[in-house]
Amino acid sequence: MQHTWRWFGPTDPIRLDEIRQTGATGIVTALHEIANGEVWPHQAIAERKALIEAAGLTWSVVESVPVHEAIKQGLAARDELIANYCQTLRNLAACGIDTVCYNFMPVLDWTRTDLRYRLPDGALALRFDQVAFAAFDLYLLARPWAESDYSEEEQREARNYLDTLGQADRDTLVDTLIAGLPGAEEGYTLAQFREVLTAYAGIDAGRLREHLGYFLRAVIPVAEEVGIRMAIHPDDPPRPMLGLPRVVSTAEDAQWVLDAVPSPANGLTLCSGSYGVRGDNDLADMARRFGPQIHFVHLRSTRRETPDPRSFHEAPHLDGDVDMVAVIQALVAEERRREREGGARLPLRPDHGHQLLDDQQRATAPGYPLYGRLRGLAELRGVELAVRQLTR
Ligand code: DNO
Q1: Stated pTM of the model
Q2: DSSP 8-state code for residue 40
Q3: Which residue puts its alpha carbon closest to atom 10 of ligand 1?
Q4: Which keywords are on file for this protein (predicted)?
Q5: 10 Å Cβ neighbour count for 109?
Q6: Do 99 and 265 meet the contact criterion of CB atoms below 8 Å apart?
Q7: By C-alpha distance, which of 64, 47, 58, 59 is closest to 100?
Q8: CA 351 / ligand 1 centre spacing (Å)
Q9: ipTM of the complex
Q10: Which of 29, 64, 246 has most ligand 1 atoms within 8 Å of its beta carbon, as the pocket-test mutant?
Q11: What is the DSSP string of 282-317?
């Protein structure tokens, strides 16, 4: 597989010359400075590409060309925004970039409640705690009708949890949930956030699917024409939240996306860390089933917690609930098939890492430290090599 590394652009504290030493050869990045909905100019793409190539790396995948809220909500403005999206794809293709990751999560991209969860070995991990999340939803956001989503016991637990938090901890929890984690192109204040949630009052999963279908019917033919592979990223966590529908959480959802517009350009990001939060997603099976339609792979592992398995933390890359060796075995088989029958390269990146060692002194985007990902990449490469040799 092609080993890649997510880089947030020239403002990322981790430099390209450092990434070069991790063993990655491809860069995953986006023009984060361009507002969501605007066309990425050809010139700006070409300049970023030249910067990456000057460091001896290649721009492997765009993560993400973000999908504007008006498209997700199906508003009248969507047609112009979709036209801009298509123009961005044309400009990317003209610069020789052929793989684009995106997601269709309403309002929030990925979500955690704790960015500094200390593990027994001293590393810091990202965590999603269902009780903290309920406390936010019910009492800090105070979302109207939130009560109907929680049992009385869950409400009591959330209240008790909130009482243990001082003001600073409450502010941190709110910031963590709505200020936007890296890669999320939007950040909100509490008031803006309540407002955007109400925009979804009439949008259930069926409607959101219609809006996704509309987007795909417009965008996929253009992607196919210019030679871009679109790779939809799953919901993280993979379930509805805050009364918002989510439609890319399971293997059936992924199948729905592929069937909506059958095309080699319409594919998936197989993210083991997102899909793998659900016990009913079998990642190795998904890797086999969707093989040729997998355009991009994110590998990391999570660990569901007890007593409430909706809570989870990010585990070491090889040591969570997902059987990573089986996933890599399936991906190696898919790559061999492509080698035989022809097919695109399969870019893979280590997803989030723990903050290890010097990572704890160096501010980077949450989930994207140097050593934690370096360790993840090294472990994943080791498994891949072993699988390749042992199944020769
Ligand atoms: C989190 C990332 C997501 C991802 C987007 C793709 O670390 O996996 O932000 O980039 O959902 O559109």
Answers
A1: 0.97
A2: P
A3: 183
A4: Iron, Lyase, Manganese
A5: 18
A6: no
A7: 64
A8: 9
A9: 0.96
A10: 64
A11: -HHHHHHHHGGGEEEEEE-EEEE-SS-TT-EEEEPT
